[in-house]
Design goal:
The protein has about 260 residues and is mostly helical. It has one domain. Helices cover about 75% and strands about 0% of the residues. It has eight helices and two strands. The chain has a two-stranded antiparallel ribbon with strand order 1-2. Strand 1 and strand 2 form a beta hairpin. Helix 4 packs antiparallel against helix 5. The longest helix has 29 residues. It is globular, with a radius of gyration of 18 Å. The chain starts with 9 loop residues before the first strand and ends with a helix.
């Protein structure tokens, strides 16, 4: 497994510092952490809106405020901090859960229409990013303008993934396990295309990034939803703590592995 850390900024003979990317290196550990983070975000969003009974408007206000704080710290940082980066990913998935549910249940748009709106926002973000930089690669991302575009795309993609996962269950009629299998199948196809074809790797990255979100979301719902709804009824708070501990464990293990190389 490749390193999940970044090297220190390089200094040339003239004393000039060359910054390095503040985005986590895309390795197997990256995708494992992404799935855990999306599962945690789904359960945390449901905990705020449902378990605490605050509703989607208040829930979105809370999660979007936290997201803004974490992203501000991430973008202002002068180097890659693994814990901060993954905290930002969790924050985008938590806010994305509230965005998707608010569009469906508060605004009455439905998950299909919500998915279309969010997909349009994502495509528009990627189009603007490509127009500005002529590149959508995430490794490396050094300039702050590109990093901002990356995080906007992440917010849209994680919100879209939530809406898509909920549509599989509430609209198509799949169980949570079936929904997870469908998205896992899409991820498997992307993996096959990555290794067996010459399809653009950046395109495949964003497809995988989107569909790891509904995989984590449907798995999170499976853990926390009532037995009558096809879930395990573990409770959002307890399951969130388990996911948080697992995220920290994988992050720590990947960091330890990097120090041995």
């Amino acid at each position: 497994m490749a390193s999940m850390t970044r090297f220190e900024p390089a200094v040339d003979t003239g004393g000039r510092v060359h910054p390095v990317s503040k985005i986590a290196e895309v390795t197997l550990a990256f995708w494992i952490l992404k799935i855990i983070a999306t599962t945690l975000g789904e359960m945390s969003g449901d905990f705020i809106a449902h378990t605490m009974n605050l509703g989607y408007v208040v829930g979105l206000s809370i999660t979007s405020t936290l997201l803004l704080i974490v992203l501000t710290l991430q973008i202002r940082a002068d180097r890659f901090h693994p814990a901060l980066f993954w905290a930002a990913i969790v924050a985008t998935t938590t806010a994305g859960t509230e965005v998707s549910d608010l569009m469906d249940r508060t605004l009455g748009l439905g998950y299909v229409a919500g998915s279309v709106i969010l997909a349009t926002g994502l495509l528009a973000t990627l189009a603007v990013w490509y127009y500005r930089d002529r590149d959508l690669s995430v490794d490396p991302i050094i300039e702050k303008d590109a990093e901002i575009m990356f995080w906007i795309a992440v917010v849209f993609s994680n919100s879209l993934g939530t809406a898509f996962g909920d549509a599989l269950v509430d609209v198509v009629g799949f169980s949570y396990v079936q929904g997870a299998f469908v998205t896992a199948g899409i991820i498997a196809v992307v993996l096959l295309l990555h290794y067996a074809t010459k399809v653009d790797k950046t395109v495949l990255f964003w497809i995988a990034f989107i569909f790891t979100r509904p995989f984590g979301a449907t798995f999170g719902d499976f853990l926390t939803k009532p037995l009558a709804s096809g879930g395990l009824d573990l409770g959002t708070l307890q399951a969130s703590f388990v996911a948080l501990a697992l995220l920290a464990t994988v992050l720590f293990a990947s960091g330890r592995l990097a120090t041995t190389r």
